[in-house]
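Proteins fold reproducibly. Next comes an illustrative record:
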Amino acid sequence: MQAKIERIGDGFGLLLPKEVLDACGFGTAATVTVQNRTLVVTAGPHQAREGWTEALGAIPQTELDRDFAELATLRETPSEWDAAEWHWPAPAANETI
C-alpha cells in the first residue's frame, strides 16, 4: 500500500486510511520507532483496565449468575487465616504517605 506524506507546519504527516488505523487499534496517539531505516508505527500505550467495562457488559447475565453462585462458598466461608494470621505490615520508619 502506498501512503501520502504531506507537509504540516514544520513537520510532515503520513496519511493513512481509516481502515488501516482501525485495524491496528490506533486511537489518538501512536508510538513511532525506526529500526534499520524502517519506520515502525504501533498503537500507543493502553490505559490500565481499558475496555473492561465493555468486556464485562458483553458477558451474558446467565454466566454471571452461574459464576456468582459457584463462588458463594468461597465468599461465605470464614478463614482462620483471615481472622488470626493476617496482619498489615508495620510501615517503615522513614515511610511517608
